[in-house]
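Appendix B, example 12.
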Amino acid sequence: MRNQTAVLVLVDIAPDSFLWGLSRYVIGRFSLRKIPGLQFFKVLGSGFEGGFSTKPSFHKQGLFCVFDSEQHAKQFRTQSALVQSYLKHSREFFAVSLNAFSTRGSWANTQLDVTANAPVSGPIASLTRASIKPLKANAFWKNAQPAEVSINQSEGVILSAGLGEAPYLRQATFTIWEDETALNAYAQQGAHLAAIKAAYGQQYFSESMFTRFTPSEMEGTWRGKHYG
C-alpha cells in the first residue's frame, strides 16, 4: 500500500555502547542512505531521562523516519541493518509506525501527508516540534517546563518523550494517549494551553509542526515501561 508512513524509534544506549551512541549524532545520517522508500528523516537527541528538558541525555536518543509506503516502513523496522544495530547497542528499544490524520506546519520545510482517518476510539499519537528563535528561547523554556511536568501527571498518557535536533533551539515532544479525549484534555487546558498561547502570541518559533497520528505495531520498552 502506497500510504506515507512514519516510524519513530526511541533507544536507551547501553553503557558499554556509549561511544557508538555518540557517533549516531555525527555519522548517523550516513546509515540512512539508500534505504528503500525513505523520504525524510531526523536523528534526534533526548532530554534528561528521556523527557523535555534543557539538560540533555547522553544515552537516550530518537530516530524519526518517513517512508513512501507502509511496506517500506515495515521493511525498515523488521529487516534493516540500522534497526538491528540499535537493538544490539541498546538496553531499551521502542518503535511505532505512524499514519497522520491531522497535520499543520512543516519540519525542515517538509510537510507530512494525511494518510489516515481520525480514529473513533483507541490510541492516538502526537508530535509537536519547533525551531525556537534564539532571542525567544529563555521565554519559551520558562513556559515549556511546567507543560512537561503536566504531561506526566495527565490521565490517559501512554508514553512521552522529549526529543530534539539541537539542544535548546530545535525541540520536539512525542506522546501517545489512550484516546483523543485524553490528549485534548491535556492540550486544551492548564500549563500546556498557557505555553501554546505564549508561543504564538509572542512568536517564539521560526518553524513548527503539529501532527496527530494513528499508531500501529507499537512494541518495545521506554523509560522502564513495556509496550506491545
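The first helix runs from residue 18 to 27. DSSP finds six helices and nine strands in the chain.
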